[in-house]
Fold:
Amino acid sequence: MKLCVFDFDSTLMDGETIDFLAAELGLGEKVAEITEMAMRGELDFFESLVTRVKLLEGLEVERVDAVCRSLPYMPGAKETIARLKERGYKVVVFSGGFRNATGYAKEVLGFDADFSNILHANNGRLTGLVGGDMMFDFSKGDMLRRLQALLGVTPDNTVAVGDGANDRSMFARAGTRIAFCAKEILKKEANVIIETKDLTKVLEYVE
Structure:
């Protein structure tokens, strides 16, 4: 068996989900600045995530879901996932973002499973709290290690595709490490670098 793990924000999707949500409250620029610093590795991922989600307090869940259903997917995303599955890969998404987005994207793009975070809500509005599978800088690597053990997949048969600092931990567990339109901190740990916003380029490096 072979495994391909994608990051979601700025990899399968063209942008950052939390930035789109913050824009609904007029806080897009403020949140985007924190996001950018976190993806460059200049802020602790957990602390930056908690800080940004707190700013979303009060946003209606209906608006969250509407935003998450209208996110712009990266060119070639659906085709690339389909082709990988034809080649015998299990395709999984690890996201420091949110289940509202990755759960819907799974239906649209056709990957096998998603691991992400959950925005806590009460009475139809976000409370500003968050929890889930991908809260920490090490979360993706830890989850990848467990998935590999469960599926019997070696690092040599694992492909990881991402763009930001919190993808480094999964790169450490993957034989093929693809930095996709990535921050410099991640490029340093990649053995494939793609600078074009076209996910079908991934297929050139995957057997």
Notes: The mean pLDDT is 97. Residues 132 and 199 are 27 Å apart (CA to CA). The chain has one domain: 2-205. The chain has nine helices and seven strands.
